[in-house]
Request: fold
Amino acid sequence: MANLYPYLILIGISIILATSWLLGQARRRARITNELVSLNEELGFDLPDFLRHCWAPLQKAGFKGISWQLDWFGSTISHSEGTKGEVFIDRSLDIDDISLSVHLYDGKRRFEQRYFSNVLSESFFLLLYTDMWVKLGTVQGAFAQTAKMNVFLQHDMKNIVQLISLVAEQLESTPAGKEEKLLSSLRTVMPTLRERSERFLNTLSTQTPTDPVQPVNLCEAFHKTADIHDLEIEISGEGQVLVNQQSLNSICDNLFGNYIDETRRNPGSQPIIQIVIEDNENDLEVKIRDENGRPCLWPERLFEPFWSEKGDGLGIGLYHARQLVTGAGGNLRALTPSDDAMTFVVNLPKPL
Amino acid sequence: MNEKELENSATEDSSDIGSEEPIRILLVEDDPALRLVMRNVLENHDYHVQEADSRVVAEAILKDDTSIAAIVLDLGLPPSPHTTAEGLAVIRSVVEKLYPAKIVVLTGQDEESSALAAIKEGAFDFLSKPSKSEDILNAVQRAVLFYRKERTLSEEEGLTRLQINAKVADGLKAVREDAEEKLVRHVLKDTKFNVYQSAARLGLKRESIYYFLK
Reply:
């Protein structure tokens, strides 16, 4: 038995050495995979760029060469690096307007080397496939949003043009004795027209207003917006916040917009909006809640741009409000209990 | 009918109405400023205008006031002002409930598809925003003219205009059933749902009327 010990020790050492070597190889391939992932991220998940720069890490992994042909929205580009051989791993990927054919040339590998090559090449192909979907998703999303935006802007713009056109015609041909009536109408119409045009511009603008920040009375701002939308609100507490007036109007407008939409969907249910203003050390915390409100079914979607519950809204109201609140140094979030009405919580900085 | 004839007919109508109540128009538009200006345009031409800013309000007014001759309708109404759903629902409601008012669609929605949908549902005329007040008034005049002539034909000659959307592929049976149902509903409405009178007017047995009431 004692004679076997040296052999057993030798076998043990061999196993340890082989395992260590395999672990080393696995770690090396993992590092190369991470390198590829990082490179793809650095290049903004841009498929043509990634294909042009991926050879260095692949070469480190022991591949002999790569060749690819990419049909990118109708333009065909191809490229090759290294040497071509008879042994290769190939893949064809095809989604809508993008198709790609890749050949990864490899030496004659066996056993664990072949396994490592396959694992790395599969990770590489997965990255290429992801890039294709990222690009298509971005393109399709952009088109959908542009189309949606066009529908909204055209609708508002056509109403504004129709209004101006009718007013201009009436100014030219008002029947005698009806001038006073026209003037009275214009007194009502013009401020509304100005407000609509400003909103129209606000919808188009993605920038935070550049006017200076100033102390603004929150209660006054809430009441003003509520009056415009014919909403009933009850406020407890009061205070001033340091914010741009236009931003605050827009924030109130967008937050109240949800309750207005809800009223329009369910004409019988008039919202009872309770607003509680609490004075914190550095900011004012405002809680806005509709006592008649329903639980929010899509809490994760509330602030997602271009998403609306019924698909009938532009879906940038709350996103825009959050951007404005954050831009003013505050915070906007929503408490969405599953069995109770949602509460918006707005924190805005106080004047020093 | 050319413009001259139309103008003459409209003048005749106006003079008819001069001694009676003014022609009643329902203006369905969710933009308050535009609604006010359009109201002025119509009132300056002696129409009596009622306003609605949504489908629900429009339907309530139509239910209460059956003497409305024409509806000027914006298809994009709340809660989804950027789609035609609510406006088309108003047209459908007018057709289904057999209101005699003629619908003039005035909308900023995508012209071709909206016009097709509106006419399919039963709109009388279609204008896209922006339109001249002259065009709007002409369309309203035409609608009122048709409303009045149909009313005259109904009162004097017992004629009823039925609107049927039929697919040729569905064959005559589908058209006949649709026409029968609409005619019975029309007569039932005229007789304030008096089954006996309706059956007598249509020359049917009362049981047959009950069949349509199902």
